[in-house]
Write a structure and sequence with these properties.
Distance between the termini: 85 Å
Strand content: under 5%
Number of strands: 0
Structural class: mainly alpha
Helix content: 55-70%
Order of helices and strands: HHHHHHHHH
Radius of gyration: 20 Å
Number of helices: 9
Largest sheet: none
Shape: globular
Number of domains: 2
Length: about 190
């Protein structure tokens, strides 16, 4: 006896699920997408796509609809969002997409020193192979970092926090523009 015929719609494939989750995201149903990714994670513990998808959907939900319920508590645990981004990056250490997403989430959640550590890892990943172009990711992250620093210091760049982290953000911006180093970029600013 062969395997029983599965009736249509009985079992969705992973591809179908990912397509469905993507459609949910497009339609703004981020919670629905999170539920799909949660099921995917339960069934595929070692697939980074599930963790990344869940975390990305959660981040969209937070950005779009805020993260406080009527009692003022977090609806979605930001620690879990960051942990899932981190898990995806750990499961696929060659993925610049996962690494960049993790760093950006840390900036979003105001974990600046941690974000900078992860951005340095992203840069190292970019340096490790010509196949990886992380300039766009670094440039975008630099912009987010600078916005975050300005917001946090109320645009007072002489403030200690700004003094500590602006140079790193500027360096990432220059690397993101395709310079090999901040020093190389500065050579172009030196006039005779």
């Amino acid at each position: 006896m062969g395997p029983p015929n599965t009736t249509e719609g009985d079992e969705m494939t992973d591809v179908d699920l990912m397509t469905q989750a993507a459609q949910n995201i497009t339609q703004g149903d981020f919670m629905g997408a999170m539920a799909i990714f949660e099921g995917h994670i339960d069934a595929n513990r070692d697939d980074p796509a599930g963790y990344h998808g869940w975390a990305e959907s959660a981040l969209f939900e937070i950005q779009e609809n805020g993260n406080f319920d009527e009692k003022g508590n977090d609806r979605i645990n930001e620690g879990q969002v960051a942990a899932y981004f981190k898990k995806a990056a750990a499961l696929d250490p060659q993925s610049t997409e996962y690494q960049a997403a993790y760093a950006n989430a840390l900036i979003e959640f105001d974990r600046i020193p941690m974000a900078i550590r992860e951005l340095k890892k992203l840069k190292e990943l970019g340096d490790s192979s010509d196949d990886f172009d992380v300039t766009q990711d670094l440039y975008q992250a630099a912009k987010m970092l600078i916005d975050n620093i300005d917001f946090k210091t109320n645009f007072d760049r002489s403030e200690q926090f700004a003094k500590q982290f602006l140079p790193v953000a500027v360096e990432f911006a220059l690397l993101g523009m395709g310079f090999a180093s901040a020093e190389e970029a500065l050579e172009y600013l030196q006039t005779e």
